[in-house]
Amino acid sequence: MDHIYEVLRAFRDDYEGSFSVLEFGVADGYAFTKKLHAARYLKMESRVMFHGFDTFEGLPDIDQGADGALIEGDDWVAGTYKGRYDELQSYCGAKYGNFELHKGLFEDTLTKDFLATLEEYRPALIWIDCDLYSSTISVFKRLIPWIPTGTVIYFDDIYYNFSSRFTGEMRAVHEINRGDFGSGIELVPDRYLSWNSNRLYRFINLDAKFQHKLKETRRDDLRLRGDDSPFP
Ligand SMILES: C[S@@+](CC[C@H](N)C(=O)[O-])C[C@H]1O[C@@H](n2cnc3c(N)ncnc32)[C@H](O)[C@@H]1O
Protein backbone atom coordinates (compact mmCIF):
# COMPACT_ATOMS: atom_id res chain seq x y z
CA MET A 1 0.00 0.00 0.00
CA ASP A 2 2.88 2.37 0.74
CA HIS A 3 3.80 2.12 -2.94
CA ILE A 4 1.10 4.76 -3.45
CA TYR A 5 3.13 7.38 -1.59
CA GLU A 6 6.28 6.66 -3.61
CA VAL A 7 4.44 6.82 -6.92
CA LEU A 8 2.44 9.97 -6.15
CA ARG A 9 5.50 11.73 -4.77
CA ALA A 10 7.48 10.91 -7.91
CA PHE A 11 4.77 12.35 -10.19
CA ARG A 12 4.27 15.41 -7.99
CA ASP A 13 7.96 16.27 -8.00
CA ASP A 14 9.04 15.24 -11.49
CA TYR A 15 6.16 15.87 -13.89
CA GLU A 16 4.04 18.81 -14.92
CA GLY A 17 0.28 19.08 -14.97
CA SER A 18 -2.63 17.09 -13.59
CA PHE A 19 -2.87 13.34 -13.16
CA SER A 20 -5.40 10.60 -12.76
CA VAL A 21 -5.21 7.46 -10.68
CA LEU A 22 -7.44 4.63 -11.91
CA GLU A 23 -8.40 1.67 -9.73
CA PHE A 24 -10.00 -1.41 -11.29
CA GLY A 25 -11.59 -3.51 -8.56
CA VAL A 26 -12.57 -1.24 -5.66
CA ALA A 27 -14.95 -3.46 -3.61
CA ASP A 28 -15.45 -1.77 -0.23
CA GLY A 29 -12.74 0.81 -0.92
CA TYR A 30 -9.91 -0.23 1.39
CA ALA A 31 -7.20 0.76 -1.12
CA PHE A 32 -9.24 3.53 -2.75
CA THR A 33 -9.63 5.52 0.47
CA LYS A 34 -5.92 5.06 1.27
CA LYS A 35 -5.08 6.64 -2.07
CA LEU A 36 -7.32 9.66 -1.47
CA HIS A 37 -5.70 10.11 1.91
CA ALA A 38 -2.20 9.84 0.41
CA ALA A 39 -2.85 12.64 -2.09
CA ARG A 40 -4.10 14.90 0.69
CA TYR A 41 -1.11 14.04 2.88
CA LEU A 42 1.24 14.84 -0.03
CA LYS A 43 -0.60 18.14 -0.65
CA MET A 44 -1.42 17.28 -4.24
CA GLU A 45 -5.20 16.92 -4.07
CA SER A 46 -5.73 19.69 -6.62
CA ARG A 47 -3.54 17.88 -9.16
CA VAL A 48 -4.91 14.33 -8.92
CA MET A 49 -8.30 12.90 -9.83
CA PHE A 50 -9.12 9.39 -8.56
CA HIS A 51 -11.41 7.06 -10.49
CA GLY A 52 -12.70 3.79 -9.03
CA PHE A 53 -14.24 1.16 -11.32
CA ASP A 54 -16.29 -1.81 -10.09
CA THR A 55 -19.67 -3.48 -10.47
CA PHE A 56 -19.65 -3.59 -6.66
CA GLU A 57 -21.28 -7.00 -7.14
CA GLY A 58 -18.23 -9.18 -6.61
CA LEU A 59 -16.22 -11.28 -9.02
CA PRO A 60 -17.94 -12.23 -12.28
CA ASP A 61 -18.06 -15.83 -13.54
CA ILE A 62 -14.68 -17.53 -13.62
CA ASP A 63 -13.23 -18.87 -16.87
CA GLN A 64 -11.39 -21.97 -15.64
CA GLY A 65 -9.02 -21.90 -18.61
CA ALA A 66 -7.70 -18.40 -18.02
CA ASP A 67 -8.24 -18.15 -14.28
CA GLY A 68 -8.43 -21.67 -12.90
CA ALA A 69 -6.26 -22.57 -9.90
CA LEU A 70 -3.20 -24.74 -10.50
CA ILE A 71 -3.34 -25.75 -6.84
CA GLU A 72 -6.45 -27.53 -5.68
CA GLY A 73 -8.61 -25.28 -3.51
CA ASP A 74 -7.02 -22.00 -4.57
CA ASP A 75 -9.80 -21.01 -6.99
CA TRP A 76 -11.44 -17.62 -7.33
CA VAL A 77 -15.16 -17.77 -6.51
CA ALA A 78 -17.78 -15.75 -8.41
CA GLY A 79 -19.60 -13.22 -6.21
CA THR A 80 -16.82 -12.78 -3.64
CA TYR A 81 -15.53 -9.29 -2.72
CA LYS A 82 -18.96 -7.77 -3.06
CA GLY A 83 -18.50 -4.04 -2.51
CA ARG A 84 -20.39 -1.33 -0.64
CA TYR A 85 -21.00 1.36 -3.22
CA ASP A 86 -23.41 3.56 -1.25
CA GLU A 87 -21.33 3.64 1.92
CA LEU A 88 -18.13 4.28 -0.02
CA GLN A 89 -19.71 7.06 -2.08
CA SER A 90 -21.03 8.84 1.00
CA TYR A 91 -17.82 8.36 3.04
CA CYS A 92 -15.60 9.71 0.25
CA GLY A 93 -18.13 12.38 -0.76
CA ALA A 94 -18.13 13.84 2.76
CA LYS A 95 -14.32 14.14 2.82
CA TYR A 96 -13.03 14.58 -0.73
CA GLY A 97 -13.91 16.31 -3.99
CA ASN A 98 -11.34 14.72 -6.28
CA PHE A 99 -12.83 11.31 -6.97
CA GLU A 100 -15.45 9.51 -9.03
CA LEU A 101 -16.84 5.99 -8.72
CA HIS A 102 -17.87 4.24 -11.93
CA LYS A 103 -20.39 1.49 -11.20
CA GLY A 104 -20.65 -1.28 -13.79
CA LEU A 105 -18.53 -3.65 -15.82
CA PHE A 106 -15.21 -2.15 -16.94
CA GLU A 107 -16.17 -2.74 -20.55
CA ASP A 108 -19.23 -0.49 -20.07
CA THR A 109 -17.79 2.23 -17.84
CA LEU A 110 -14.57 2.87 -19.80
CA THR A 111 -16.47 5.03 -22.27
CA LYS A 112 -15.05 7.20 -25.05
CA ASP A 113 -15.97 10.34 -23.13
CA PHE A 114 -14.22 9.12 -20.01
CA LEU A 115 -11.10 8.07 -21.93
CA ALA A 116 -10.88 11.50 -23.56
CA THR A 117 -10.46 13.09 -20.09
CA LEU A 118 -7.15 11.27 -19.70
CA GLU A 119 -5.35 13.60 -22.07
CA GLU A 120 -5.66 16.38 -19.49
CA TYR A 121 -5.44 14.10 -16.45
CA ARG A 122 -2.61 11.83 -17.58
CA PRO A 123 -2.69 8.49 -15.79
CA ALA A 124 0.06 8.38 -13.17
CA LEU A 125 -0.99 5.10 -11.58
CA ILE A 126 -3.28 2.31 -12.77
CA TRP A 127 -4.18 -0.06 -9.97
CA ILE A 128 -5.32 -3.48 -11.13
CA ASP A 129 -7.06 -5.41 -8.36
CA CYS A 130 -9.77 -7.26 -10.29
CA ASP A 131 -8.05 -10.64 -9.85
CA LEU A 132 -9.09 -12.21 -13.16
CA TYR A 133 -7.41 -12.39 -16.54
CA SER A 134 -10.67 -11.62 -18.40
CA SER A 135 -11.29 -8.47 -16.37
CA THR A 136 -7.67 -7.30 -16.59
CA ILE A 137 -7.47 -7.74 -20.34
CA SER A 138 -10.81 -5.98 -20.86
CA VAL A 139 -9.31 -2.93 -19.12
CA PHE A 140 -6.19 -2.91 -21.29
CA LYS A 141 -8.16 -3.41 -24.51
CA ARG A 142 -9.80 -0.02 -23.96
CA LEU A 143 -7.14 1.83 -22.02
CA ILE A 144 -3.88 1.09 -23.84
CA PRO A 145 -4.04 3.94 -26.41
CA TRP A 146 -4.57 6.40 -23.54
CA ILE A 147 -1.65 5.38 -21.34
CA PRO A 148 1.49 7.48 -21.72
CA THR A 149 4.93 5.97 -21.37
CA GLY A 150 6.10 5.97 -17.77
CA THR A 151 2.69 5.40 -16.17
CA VAL A 152 2.97 2.99 -13.26
CA ILE A 153 0.81 -0.13 -13.38
CA TYR A 154 0.26 -2.00 -10.12
CA PHE A 155 -0.95 -5.61 -10.21
CA ASP A 156 -2.30 -6.72 -6.85
CA ASP A 157 -2.74 -10.39 -7.74
CA ILE A 158 0.37 -11.00 -9.79
CA TYR A 159 1.31 -13.92 -7.52
CA TYR A 160 -1.75 -16.02 -8.40
CA ASN A 161 -0.57 -19.48 -9.52
CA PHE A 162 3.03 -18.50 -8.73
CA SER A 163 2.87 -15.67 -11.31
CA SER A 164 2.46 -18.20 -14.09
CA ARG A 165 1.93 -16.57 -17.48
CA PHE A 166 -0.94 -18.98 -18.19
CA THR A 167 -3.50 -17.43 -15.84
CA GLY A 168 -4.71 -14.31 -14.09
CA GLU A 169 -3.17 -10.84 -14.21
CA MET A 170 0.19 -12.27 -15.28
CA ARG A 171 -1.41 -13.75 -18.37
CA ALA A 172 -2.42 -10.21 -19.40
CA VAL A 173 1.14 -8.95 -18.75
CA HIS A 174 2.50 -11.78 -20.87
CA GLU A 175 0.14 -11.03 -23.78
CA ILE A 176 1.06 -7.35 -23.76
CA ASN A 177 4.77 -8.18 -23.73
CA ARG A 178 4.27 -10.77 -26.48
CA GLY A 179 3.16 -7.87 -28.69
CA ASP A 180 -0.57 -8.61 -28.86
CA PHE A 181 -1.35 -4.88 -28.58
CA GLY A 182 1.47 -3.71 -30.85
CA SER A 183 5.19 -4.31 -31.15
CA GLY A 184 6.03 -0.94 -29.52
CA ILE A 185 4.13 -1.66 -26.33
CA GLU A 186 5.52 -3.34 -23.23
CA LEU A 187 5.41 -3.51 -19.45
CA VAL A 188 8.78 -3.20 -17.73
CA PRO A 189 9.11 -4.22 -14.07
CA ASP A 190 10.07 -1.25 -11.87
CA ARG A 191 12.27 -2.84 -9.22
CA TYR A 192 12.78 0.43 -7.35
CA LEU A 193 9.09 1.23 -6.89
CA SER A 194 8.20 -2.43 -6.33
CA TRP A 195 10.36 -2.71 -3.20
CA ASN A 196 10.35 -6.34 -2.26
CA SER A 197 7.68 -7.42 -4.75
CA ASN A 198 7.19 -7.69 -8.50
CA ARG A 199 3.89 -5.87 -8.52
CA LEU A 200 4.81 -2.60 -10.22
CA TYR A 201 5.56 -2.05 -13.89
CA ARG A 202 6.21 0.96 -16.12
CA PHE A 203 4.13 1.13 -19.25
CA ILE A 204 6.01 1.79 -22.49
CA ASN A 205 4.33 2.81 -25.77
CA LEU A 206 6.55 4.02 -28.60
CA ASP A 207 3.49 5.54 -30.34
CA ALA A 208 1.58 6.91 -27.36
CA LYS A 209 -1.03 9.63 -28.08
CA PHE A 210 0.60 11.95 -25.51
CA GLN A 211 3.46 11.92 -23.01
CA HIS A 212 4.17 12.79 -19.43
CA LYS A 213 6.13 16.03 -19.33
CA LEU A 214 9.22 16.40 -17.16
CA LYS A 215 9.32 19.60 -15.08
CA GLU A 216 11.78 22.30 -16.18
CA THR A 217 13.52 21.98 -12.82
CA ARG A 218 14.24 18.29 -13.49
CA ARG A 219 15.89 18.85 -16.88
CA ASP A 220 19.62 19.06 -17.55
CA ASP A 221 20.63 21.06 -20.63
CA LEU A 222 23.80 19.05 -20.90
CA ARG A 223 24.38 15.82 -19.09
CA LEU A 224 27.89 16.61 -17.84
CA ARG A 225 29.77 14.65 -15.23
CA GLY A 226 30.26 16.42 -11.92
CA ASP A 227 33.74 17.72 -11.15
CA ASP A 228 34.77 14.43 -9.62
CA SER A 229 37.54 12.44 -11.25
CA PRO A 230 36.49 9.58 -13.57
CA PHE A 231 39.64 7.70 -12.48
CA PRO A 232 39.94 5.41 -9.48
C1 LIG B 1 -10.30 -8.14 -4.74
S1 LIG B 1 -11.67 -7.11 -5.04
C2 LIG B 1 -10.96 -5.48 -4.94
C3 LIG B 1 -10.38 -5.14 -3.61
C4 LIG B 1 -10.13 -3.67 -3.35
N1 LIG B 1 -9.13 -3.10 -4.26
C5 LIG B 1 -9.73 -3.39 -1.92
O1 LIG B 1 -8.89 -2.50 -1.69
O2 LIG B 1 -10.25 -4.02 -1.01
C6 LIG B 1 -11.98 -7.36 -6.74
C7 LIG B 1 -13.13 -6.54 -7.30
O3 LIG B 1 -13.08 -6.55 -8.72
C8 LIG B 1 -14.40 -6.37 -9.22
N2 LIG B 1 -14.41 -6.83 -10.63
C9 LIG B 1 -13.78 -7.91 -11.14
N3 LIG B 1 -14.00 -7.99 -12.47
C10 LIG B 1 -14.75 -6.90 -12.82
C11 LIG B 1 -15.26 -6.40 -14.07
N4 LIG B 1 -15.05 -7.04 -15.23
N5 LIG B 1 -15.97 -5.24 -14.06
C12 LIG B 1 -16.18 -4.58 -12.88
N6 LIG B 1 -15.73 -5.01 -11.68
C13 LIG B 1 -15.01 -6.15 -11.64
C14 LIG B 1 -15.27 -7.19 -8.28
O4 LIG B 1 -16.56 -6.68 -8.20
C15 LIG B 1 -14.52 -7.04 -6.93
O5 LIG B 1 -15.12 -6.06 -6.13
Automatic annotation (TrEMBL):
A single Gene Ontology biological process assigned to it is: methylation
State one molecular function term (GO): methyltransferase activity
What is the enzyme's class at the highest EC level? Answer: transferase
Top-level taxon of the source organism: Bacteria
Which keywords annotate this record? Methyltransferase, Transferase
Checking InterPro entries in the record gives: SAM-dependent_MTases_sf (IPR029063), TylF_MeTrfase (IPR008884)
Q: What is its EC number?
A: 2.1.1.-
Q: Which Pfam families match?
A: TylF (PF05711)
Query: Which named protein is this?
Result: TylF/MycF/NovP-related O-methyltransferase
Organism listed in the record: Tropicimonas aquimaris
